[in-house]
């Protein structure tokens, strides 16, 4: 019974710490804030999950390579480029050079071609204005052939786009060459776009690439796409899309509590495990740590819960193998509790007003150590 009560105290205190972490609590000079740890609705704000083989297995089952989605496959099969204002058309009428290249052979098709005007039309000899905007190359060819038949016997017409100027996508952020890419007659996917700018930089956050489309944002894992072959992450890009690859400089985890070197650890694109993070922090301080109290606090961006707290019990050292399979996420907080439970509330009261991810982790832990001594 005593052990059960102590464990509830640990989890309740940890839930309060998660609440403080996620709310970004801070005290301005001269301000005052009262913390009522005894009555905080921890059960309603925080989920507690033990780190078990079943939990790890459920995550690993969802990972790995996936084939192209049926939606993307259908989009690629049905893709046809539709002409827009600014495009330059190259039109060939066989056996009629005066219509094919009236500007002479010294200039390129992009220079002497038929530019689609802002109203979506272009002018062509004999027949006048031709509506091009929103039409495919085949539809424009058919209309030219039909209208030219009034002046030329059985006209043979070929139409192509000499310069794609109407539709573009925009790439920004941590890529080798941020630039504008044209939408052409060849469908442009996210993988194609990244390849055309020379891939993402080493300092890019491959796990959270943002596709902004029509005022809505999609988060895409370039890491899962390129590294693990998850083709469900690929997208067919559309005119006006903005693809942003952010920096990974803020991708870190904070390690606090009873470890030898508490602080902030940057994450690379190859994600770190819980065991790795504890090892890089100098390992657990065996003189004061509670082996049943290794916690990972992870904020939730959606839903009614503020955080999920994962607990690893390493009283059996073999449990570290589970920690070696527990993959950390940016902004996770690892907290190793101390044995004297009677001082737990004092520790939480120090954590709540001052914590900030991930910069002040070491400073906060020093305060916690002072409180414990």
Summarize the structure.
With 373 residues, the protein is an alpha+beta fold.
Notes on the structure:
The chain has 373 residues and is of the alpha+beta class. Helix content is 29%, strand content 23%. The chain contains 13 helices and 16 strands. It has helices at 2-23, 42-45, 53-62, 70-77, 97-100, 109-112, 137-148, 190-196, 222-226, 274-280, 320-323, 344-354, 361-372, and strands spanning 46-50, 88-93, 114-115, 121-124, 128-131, 157-163, 168-173, 179-182, 209-213, 216-220, 242-245, 252-257, 263-266, 289-299, 307-312, 333-338. The model is unreliable at 1-9, 14-37 and 340-373 (pLDDT under 50).
Please estimate the helix content: 25-40%
> What is the C-level CATH assignment of the largest domain?
Alpha Beta
SSE topology string? HHEHHEHHEEEHEEEHEEHEEEHEEHEHH
pLDDT under 50 segments (min length 5)? 1-9, 14-37, 340-373
SSE-based structural type: alpha+beta
Report the sheet with the most strands, covering strand number, pairing sense and barrel closure. Answer: 6 strands, mixed
Query: How many strands appear in the DSSP assignment?
Result: 16
Domains, number? 3
Outline: rod-shaped
Give the CATH superfamily of the largest domain.
Outer membrane lipoprotein wza domain like
Biggest sheet strand order reads: 1-15-14-16-12-13
| Rg, Å, rounded | 31 Å
* Count of helical regions: 13
CATH fold name of the largest domain, please? Outer membrane lipoprotein wza fold like
Give the DSSP E fraction (strand runs of 2 or more residues): 15-25%
Determine the N-to-C terminus distance: 28 Å
Known CATH architecture of the largest domain:
Roll
Mean pLDDT: 79
């Amino acid at each position: 019974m005593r052990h059960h009560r102590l464990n509830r105290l640990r989890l309740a205190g940890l839930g309060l710490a998660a609440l403080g972490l996620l709310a970004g609590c801070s005290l301005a000079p001269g301000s005052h804030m009262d913390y009522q740890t005894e009555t905080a609705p921890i059960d309603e704000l925080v989920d507690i999950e033990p780190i078990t083989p079943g939990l790890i297995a459920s995550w690993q089952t969802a990972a790995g390579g996936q084939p192209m989605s049926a939606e993307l496959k259908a989009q690629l099969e049905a893709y046809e480029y539709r002409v827009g204002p600014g495009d330059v058309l190259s039109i060939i009428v066989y056996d009629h050079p005066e219509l094919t290249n009236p500007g002479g052979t010294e200039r390129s098709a992009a220079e002497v071609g038929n530019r689609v005007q802002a109203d979506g039309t272009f002018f062509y000899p004999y027949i006048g204005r031709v509506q091009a905007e929103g039409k495919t190359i085949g539809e424009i060819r058919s209309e030219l052939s039909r209208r030219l038949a009034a002046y030329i016997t059985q006209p043979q017409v070929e139409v192509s786009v000499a310069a794609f100027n109407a539709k573009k996508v925009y790439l920004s952020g941590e890529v080798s060459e941020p630039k504008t890419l044209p939408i052409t007659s060849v469908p442009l996917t996210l993988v194609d776009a990244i390849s055309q700018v020379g891939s993402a930089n080493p300092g890019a956050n491959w796990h959270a690439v943002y596709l902004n489309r029509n005022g809505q944002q999609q988060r895409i894992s370039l890491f899962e796409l390129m590294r693990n072959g998850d083709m469900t992450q690929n997208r067919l890009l559309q005119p006006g899309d903005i693809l942003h690859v952010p920096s990974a400089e803020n991708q870190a985890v904070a390690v606090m509590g009873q470890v030898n070197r508490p602080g902030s650890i940057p994450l690379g694109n190859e994600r770190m495990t819980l065991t790795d993070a504890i090892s890089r922090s100098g390992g657990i301080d065996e003189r004061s740590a509670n082996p049943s109290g290794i916690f990972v606090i992870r904020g939730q961006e959606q839903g009614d819960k503020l955080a999920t707290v994962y607990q690893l019990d390493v009283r059996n050292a073999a449990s570290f193998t589970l920690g070696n399979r527990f993959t950390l996420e940016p902004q996770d907080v690892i907290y190793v509790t101390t044995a004297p439970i009677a001082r737990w509330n004092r520790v939480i009261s120090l954590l709540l007003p001052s914590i900030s991810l991930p910069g002040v982790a070491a400073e906060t832990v020093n305060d916690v150590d002072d409180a414990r001594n």
